[in-house]
Design a protein that fits this description.
The chain is an alpha+beta fold. The longest helix is centred in the middle third of the chain and has 16 residues, at 57-72. It has a seven-stranded mixed beta sheet with strand order 2-1-5-4-3-7-8. Strands 6-9 form a two-stranded antiparallel sheet. It has a single domain (21-178), classed as Glutaredoxin (3-Layer(aba) Sandwich). It is 30% helix and 22% strand. The chain is globular and about 40 Å long. It has five helices and nine strands, in the order αβββαβαβαβββαβ. Strand 7 and strand 8 form a beta hairpin.
């Protein structure tokens, strides 16, 4: 019975991202203050997509660490998706004002991108390969705050990819605040 349940979970997970249309996604760019098309398929480098929320303490506690990862893994594209329904761009900009992030944050107030990825919590990380395949789906670490973590899931996945391997853990538990739909 346990094996059957595991197989069902495995099959549903592998099919979860089979229909993602990542060729071009239009989303509101906070830095550019305009709608912008983002391409996550056929790119030169893998893309790390991080779902965050200005109202989530776990997102706040992880932003500096994620920013640090974006500097450490320069051969990866990093983008943040602010995923809170009906949030005005100026509210997110006010929250990000003192942050010196090295990656773009997009506002997904209608949750289209969030639903496309089936993101559950903030922060929730995905790594999309250059051909548009989601090769990692999960948490940043095994703690809601990196300073308390003993395992660093996202960093391990990025290191594996940098070493031309698939992540040893393709899916991990996501900790944080639920995204309300």
């Amino acid at each position: 019975m346990k094996i059957l349940l595991f197989l069902c979970i495995l099959l549903s997970t592998s099919q979860l991202f089979a229909n993602l249309s990542l060729d071009e996604i239009t989303v509101f760019s906070l830095k550019k203050n305009a709608n912008e098309s983002v391409v996550l398929k056929n790119t030169a480098h893998p893309t790390v997509v991080i779902f965050i929320s200005k109202d989530c303490p776990c997102s706040k506690g992880n932003l500096d660490y994620i920013n640090q990862l974006s500097l450490e893994y320069k051969n990866m594209n990093f983008i943040g998706i602010h995923s809170k329904k009906n949030t005005l761009p100026e509210d997110v900009l006010a929250y990000l004002q003192d942050k010196k992030l090295n990656f773009e944050i997009y506002n997904d107030s209608d949750l289209k991108i969030t639903d496309l990825f089936k993101a559950l919590k903030t922060p929730h990380a995905f790594i999309v390969s250059t051909n548009g395949e989601v090769v990692y789906n999960g948490g940043v670490s095994n703690s809601t705050f990196p300073k308390n973590a003993k395992e660093f899931f996202l960093k391990d996945a990025l290191t594996d990819i940098q070493n031309n391997k698939l992540p040893s853990k393709a899916e991990t538990k996501t900790l944080g605040c639920f995204i309300v739909r």
